[in-house]
Specification:
Length: about 120
């Protein structure tokens, strides 16, 4: 006897039980949510460690005598800008108090970067 899949789902709904496919889908969704949550936690831990490192070893902005202006271009990221300027994200954030979230910078914004040491 062949039974239509819709009939099985209707019967399952009547008895408030889930089909195997629904259970699998739910498990996958839970796994994805868990992975995203773990990723966010790891990212937060890395940022916290980086900030502690910067506070301990980065030069205070009062030591930075000269700066130059840099215009943020499309596709720029603070981490890449810091590497190119041979500085840290923390130093850039100290020189530019308007940067509150390193993930959110806007094209065309002019920021200060420390002059390279010669």
């Amino acid at each position: 006897m062949l039974v239509n899949a819709d009939i099985i789902e209707n019967i399952a709904a009547l008895f408030e039980s889930k089909t195997a496919a629904e259970k699998d889908a739910t498990a996958v969704k839970r796994g994805i949510k868990s992975a995203i949550s773990k990723s966010r936690i790891q990212t937060a831990r890395v940022k916290a460690i980086q900030e502690k490192w910067d506070k301990k070893f980065a030069k205070p902005t009062s030591c930075i005598k000269q700066t130059y202006n840099y215009t943020i271009k499309n596709g720029d990221q603070l981490e890449i800008i810091a590497k190119k300027a041979n500085t840290t994200i923390s130093t850039i954030k100290r020189l530019n108090p308007m940067i509150t979230d390193e993930e959110t910078i806007f094209t065309g914004t002019i920021i200060k970067l420390p002059n390279p040491i010669k």
